[in-house]
Amino acid sequence: MASDIRRAIDAVYRIESARLIAGLTRMVRDVGLAEDLAQDALVAALEQWPESGIPDNPGAWLMTTAKRRAIDLWRRNTRLERKHEELGRELEIQQKMAAMDLDAAIDDPVGDDLLRLMFICCHPVLSTEARVALTLRLLGGLTTEEIARAFLVPVPTIAQRVVRAKRTLAEARVPFEVPEKAELTVRLSSVLEVIYLVFNEGYAATGGDAWTRPELCEEALRLGRVLAGLLPKEPEVWGLVALMEIQASRLRARVGPSGEPILLLDQDRGRWDQLLIHRGLAALKRAEELSGALGPYALQAAIAACHARARTPAETDWARIVALYDALAQIAPSPVVELNRAVAVGMAFGPAAGLELVDALTSEPLLEGYHLLPSARGDLLTKLGRFDEARAEFERAALLTRNARERELLLGRAAACVR
Q1: Does any domain span residue 101?
Q2: Structural domain harbouring 37
């Protein structure tokens, strides 16, 4: 029974922690202190719920307990600034109201608070690694150990990133607010970038023994859907949701029975999740309706939609994909976009045309060490019957990747390069 209660408490906290920390941050204006208060409430739940039972509204109970803890802290510290004293009085009033109506305690402007928490977790003052760790910790409710395991880094490394991130936010006095319209686009791009980084690490793991980590994709999708609910008029939010939904639809088909990778054109499309495809196409339509000119995520979603709509690889509209990559290169130019465009050109207009473009990228400094460049070149060389060169390219790609499953795939492709 005790273990069942513990699991239930863990589940409740995972569900409620983001809203709890968001609401507390609005009140105390310190995300680190807010998380500490939330953790204190969790400890209280672990102590009391096994005897008293889980309350009808566990989220409200946690919020009320955390508020009381905040008030106690302020009362014990008489040297706090006047601002804190005023905030403490405000909390006392809110606490009294919560005592009369526990159900209302968690029903403050939760949506606004969650949105503010997203923006503070993904603030540009933090490094990309810190943004990812803090987002998963505070918004995803993942433990430090879970984040470390997902990204294959030591637990102390993640712990340090989270601690430093909270310290940096406090020292920079980053306001807990939704950015003004003039700053919103830049700040929102940071939030979208973090969510997509989490998704990509789940969709195509950069290291380790697994080709995919679906739990990271699920978490990123959850955050993306929450963000779309909070900012329903932002087309790029819907573009990102569409992209993730459509790509996530392939997860089951991306691995074989033993976990081996299966490339896009070799996948059993009958295993693609049609519900996720439907949701993705609906999100893409929403993005298109909100904006005449698609942004980078919506364009990538449109490319993914071309694959989703094709019942077989042969039916894929590669010419449209090339055109979409042309548009993407105009608004978000990068060597990786050019590489993907070259692959699409090879599919639409023949491997020789694709290889010419890939060869032009071999001297690109930003692609040095990028394993997908020799992998793409090897694929095109294979189609042209230049097997010795293709084998060398696949072997080079295998040396560059840090993912064990991908390395096996590339070495297998190298071995298959026979005259």
Answers
A1: yes
A2: 2-108
